[in-house]
Amino acid sequence: MKARILTRKNNSIKHYIALCLFITSTLTFQVYGHENGEPNVPLPKFESCGSTEKPLLPAKWESGALLQHFSDTRLVTSNIVYDSSVSAMRFTMAGITKGSGDFLLLDDGKLFALSGGYHKPTQCRYIAPTALKVPDRQWLKKDSLCVGEAQVTEKDMVWWKYKVAPVSVETAQATFSHSAVNILRKTVKNSYASSPQPPGADWIWYHKKSQLPYRTMFSIRNYDYGVLGLFTFNYLPTFRAIEKTNLQELKDMCSQQTVATDPGFDIDNVEDFLKENTLSNKQRMKLVNHWVPGLETTTSKLPPPPPWPHKAEITTFFTSVNYCYAPFPSRVYYDWEAQSQLTRMYWNDAGAIPPEPCSQTPEFFVQDALLRGDVSSSLKNTGFIFNKDQSGNPSQCHQVLPGIQIPNWKEVDNCEAKAQLAPRTILNPSNEIVKIIRCPITSFDAPVPQIFWTWYTITGTPIVFMQSNSNTDGTGLNLADYHYWKAGQSAPQGSFDLPNICRDQQKHPVPESCHSCHLPLNTMQ
Known about the structure:
Elements: H1 13-19, E1 33-35, E2 38-40, E3 60-68, E4 75-83, E5 88-95, E6 100-106, E7 110-115, E8 123-129, E9 145-152, E10 155-164, H2 178-191, E11 200-207, E12 213-217, E13 233-235, E14 240-241, H3 247-254, H4 270-274, H5 281-291, E15 295-297, E16 311-320, E17 328-335, E18 340-346, E19 366-372, E20 382-388, E21 394-402, H6 409-412, E22 416-421, E23 434-440, E24 451-457, E25 462-467, E26 477-487
Antiparallel strand pairs: 1-2, 3-4, 3-13, 3-14, 4-5, 5-6, 6-7, 7-8, 9-10, 10-11, 11-12, 12-13, 15-22, 16-17, 16-26, 17-18, 18-19, 19-20, 20-21, 22-23, 23-24, 24-25, 25-26
């Protein structure tokens, strides 16, 4: 790997602040590898695409879906039936705790509510015209890029993305102080002479063997994908081709309805979809487990997973909503006793980078984020970001991060378990129950509410971490897929040493919300 030097000032300020929260222990322990002479948990493997031919979906398909929203705290499931010959999509929705609805979407955006029986609806009501579209068989856009191949939940996946409009820098106002927003705005302006912001990216993961979709991540709402585009982070565990559907019959029945009965229906409001209550509670829960095998209700009153171990070495993939970056293989050392945490992102040589508009995208060999706690130093409870070349020489240090996060952050941050996945099921190949947890970032009356969706085993091993409504500034990190960990592992000597170039940096403000989990805590719990 050749050395690369980052040239953009303050690159990654926002999203290292956002993502330093999920640096933690991970899914699977493997035998040590060796890197630079030190024993390490191995970095996850990312390989170049074996084929760049875009997958074409079946003409008729059905899939259960686990839907995680941009801002709504409820976890939602759905069963989706698609028929390209009818240009229609039926989606039956069920909240994990309450609420349900059964809908038919036609290619002109008209939305209908179905009732009279789940297996064979007998009634149809025209709700309203909407901006929703029935998706094409080809989900990938013209500028879609096959980025590479790597595992997700122990399944071989092909990682695709396509370009979308960037989330406005003003979304930073949801979590950043006024001065920090100005820093970001100035950074973006200086970094892109021809474009005020890097383009955003939506991601789709396909099974390598079957070429059927497994997961989607939308950086902004995308009405081209029907109900899926209303949610930010979706899993499709039972996606399969089918021979026939009843959508033509349903379309014929619904086409007789011409007057909208609920013109104020808000497709961006989860409650509007769940208020129909077309399923009984017993039927709803039976179907939820059928659509998403192993999914069960849980209670937020249960204690969150255990705190982090006081020492750990972790490896993970960090994925970005910035179209110009491939996922970064990354290594983390966490040491609560030493009050230090180091996250090291490596440039992904195997990941494809779009030539345009990304020809000027700054590259680096490694980028380090070092978070300090209440150590015997004048630089307490703060964090730094800097680059190192292949020889280990640091450069471009900025003091823009909070301090180390506390081991029991999930408890202090009022995280709630919304559901759980049984062991050895499609979405949870491990031998432990996995909790699906929602954590607040901002107050829900903020201009752009944000949510952390994170999955942990009941013994505290993380599976995935995702942030909604992310900004594309800097590296635009918003997703972590954890791979390997070693609890109790100490960092190599010198890992937490602060480079001299970091000692005279101006300390920039960080979001108030960071101090719910990172030192210095707002409450010092």
